[in-house]
Amino acid sequence: LLCIMWISFGVAAHAQHTADNPKTKHKSIYKAPAIAELLRSLKLTVSEKKKADISYELSNAYLGKFKIDSATWYSNYIAGISKKNRYAAGMGKYHLSYAGALFLRNRGQGALHHLDSATKIFHTLHDNLYLGLSYRLKGRQLGQMNQNIEAQLSYRLAISLIERSGDKNYLHRILHDFGRNFYFSYEVDSAAFYLTRALKMAEEMESAPKIFNTACILGTVLTLAHAGRAQIERGQGVYFYLPKLGAAGEGGVWKGFLVA
pLDDT by residue (tens digit) across 158-191? Predict the structure, then answer.
């Protein structure tokens, strides 16, 4: 029985973990702020740099809901504030968030151009977290363009950088994305390796959504690698049963995932 994976693009803030109980010290308790909460914070904030940071979170929150026009508006707002205040990190976040909008609009070359700008800025600032996030999105964009060798290089850089930053939330996401990329390039063994690593991390964090999403894809990969392979050798098709679709868009997600 195959689970239904819900894929969200939105980028969350730093992971938080409980520490009182040794059994749950890795548990992920982070919950991304709602758009209404971010809008209130933006209205109340006096600091221009803080406004740029909040606008970055708003842009990504809107990207997570596929409201690309709203996301782009806040990306441009980040650029205006950051240029005025010579806020280098803000300019990096502008390029990163704008690249996210272009990624969703399937404008690959434009996204890569902005990601090149983002990586230069975050490299200069020695910001491992946002440099890793930039390489993560670059990996996703290159994978979407079927440039799998280049995508793999970007993912490996992203994993190294995010590991150094200590952010387990994003490290899980990158491992998940990297395994998914290997699935689409028909490298089942590598897909299983990275997805298994991501699933182990999700279980340590006791994050139900992360476990759900990664286990869904890993289950598909293992089916294709074993039972599915035997069916293909017999000239048979591989069929999956989708028990429930929460939204019409999910059908398109699974069609692209399962139909070669």
Answer: 999 999 999 998 999 999 999 988 887 778 888 8
